[in-house]
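Let us practice reading a record.
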Amino acid sequence: MTDDDQGFAGDLARLRRSIDNLDAAMVHLLAERFRCTDAIGELKARHGLESRDPRREAAQLKRLRILAAQSGLDPDFTRKLHALVVREVITNHEAVKFESGAG
């Protein structure tokens, strides 16, 4: 194995460790986000509010697309990710509403 091969293997391993750490952080952040949105779902069900808030979703998406562009991330990817997360949140809110007898 040449020095160049060893350097490549070391760089690859280091970058993959960083990716693994970032993936773990994303999972933890998503878990915390869903703890918050679950609590919001319970509040909404208790107060008879709709699961969806289109104005909030639109404002949040606009903010996230700006942040993505500023960070060098594809804003369209951010839109897709946001849509996925919002769908899951709405599903969870609807389940809470149903379980509470409000839906």
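A brief commentary: Residues 3-46 form the longest helix (44 residues).
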